[in-house]
Amino acid sequence: MPEHAPPRTRTGQAAEARTRMVTRLEAEGDLRPGLVRDALLALPRERLMPQAYVRRSQPEETPPRWDLLNWAVTADQDELLDVLYGGESVLIQHDGEPILGRVPGPRSGGSITSMSSTIGMTAGLLQELDLRPGRRVLDIGTGAGVTTAIACWICGDAGVVTLDRDRHVTAAARERLAGLGFRPSTVSGDGEAGWADLAPYDRIFVSYTVPRLPEAWLAQLAPGGRALVNVSTRSPSWPGLAVVTRTPGGWIEGELRAVEYGHRPAHGFERNFISARFRDRIAAGEEGRTFRSRHAPPPDDARGMWLALDHLHPGLVRNWAADHLTLGAPACGSWLTARPDPVGDWTLAAYGPRDIWDEIQDTAARWRAAGEPDTYQLRLEPGGEQWVSAGSGQAELSWCLPPASTSKNRTKDPS
């Protein structure tokens, strides 16, 4: 079924849904008064995403099943409004398909290959980007065009470039942005190369996670410019946010913040995961040894410590669904669980060649000596090395981000 403009009878309901979304974002602390808030109230998400997928299968069910909802189908409209304005990621492409002209209905197997990120995270990042009229913006990872639309609404579309590796994503965004009256430069290409033709940029926004910062992004940042990029290991559990600026004198400065949420990984940057079988092995605990400790694990909100652990002892994945600390190392099958006991100590169980508890305690001690940082200095050396550090002297806590040639290797779950 072809796409159409929203029926007039639904326009008011969509506007009410936008208002509720903005009110919720304000209440949750993700949005404050300003231009980003005004843009979110003004921009109809159902025009940018007139079709979206909803998953109908359970997380471990195979093959996975989705339904493609369509705003032009009356029976789909209520559910689609909930999807578009509910705050979660919006799934927009299945298995690299063309996006324009799709027939709605069920899909089976394959995977979702493009999405619009959670609006709370997007709003927070865009506010930090400090968009203003006339600023030149490079939006890498177009997706549904939400970030691009906000940048166009605030800055004017003449200075906005949006880049995606998938030409189908680019084509859909170009058409739908034009339907809203925006005509930014909408291009396809390798995101890591940026888009040198219209550089330099005052602001660079990247909507996926990378293991290190590509040199091209740094080179395309204008004096006084700022870039926001999620930087992470192959673990999805403890993301970092790189905030990079170029001083008026041309020097690159940066910091890496430990944050709660991050974007999905870049194409080809495979993530570790704990499979259902591995989770079952950990829950059974039959292989592990049990011991006690008077030392508590660092709390979840000590994000700077967990970020350091992830980089200094890579390969760990947190099972956030467990009601106690549960970590697994898919590459070697090691795992650790920790539960508080009635007398104030901790009961731990561990298995495998890695001593995960010792890794945690060692990193926590180094993190405390460095001043318990949640934000680290990010040093971008002329030779290409990228160092993360906090503290000084013997108390310095530091690590080097992986070279570009090794940053996309895949680690499989052996379980």
Task: Provide a descriptive summary of the structure in words.
Helices cover 27% and strands 27% of the residues. With 415 residues, it is α+β, with helices and mostly antiparallel strands. The chain has a domain of 94 residues: TATA-Binding Protein (2-Layer Sandwich). The longest helix is centred in the first third of the chain and has 20 residues.
Present the secondary structure layout:
Layout: H1 8-27, H2 35-42, H3 45-48, E1 51-55, E2 65-70, H4 77-85, E3 90-94, E4 105-108, E5 112-116, H5 119-129, E6 137-140, H6 146-155, E7 160-164, H7 167-179, E8 185-188, E9 201-210, H8 215-219, E10 221-231, E11 240-246, E12 252-258, H9 276-284, E13 289-293, H10 303-312, E14 317-318, E15 325-329, E16 334-340, E17 346-351, H11 356-369, E18 375-380, E19 386-390, E20 397-400
Uncertain residue segments: 408-415
> Helicity range of the residues?
25-40%
The total beta strand count reads 20
Gyration radius over CA = 23 Å
| Helix vs. strand class | alpha+beta
Count of DSSP-assigned helices: 11
Envelope shape: globular
Keywords:
transferase; PCMT; 415 residues; methyltransferase activity; 5-stranded antiparallel β-sheet; SAM-dependent_MTases_sf; alpha+beta; 27% helix; methyltransferase; TATA-Binding Protein; disordered C terminus
